[in-house]
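Section 3.1: Structural characterization of target chains.
Under the original work plan, the team committed to producing a structural model for every single-chain target entering the pipeline before any wet-lab resources were allocated. The record below documents one such target. The sequence was received from the expression subgroup and is listed exactly as submitted; it comprises 72 residues.
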Amino acid sequence: MPNVSFHDLSQIDAAGRSALMRRSESDLSGFMEKAAPIIEAVRTEGDAALVRFARDFDKADLDAARQKVSPA
């Protein structure tokens, strides 16, 4: 899994900012293909899928019935 980098744009010169912006032109289709089944599972299974993915990806010990979330 790729690492996420954080950049303080106020500390980067114009050339550096331009280089960062060019990264957004990268082909993300491989990531989209990996994310699509996860998104679909959450759409169809709801909280059960979220709990399962939290357990699988984050090793979180969650129980959907015990989680309290305020309405959106």
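Residues 27-66 form one domain.
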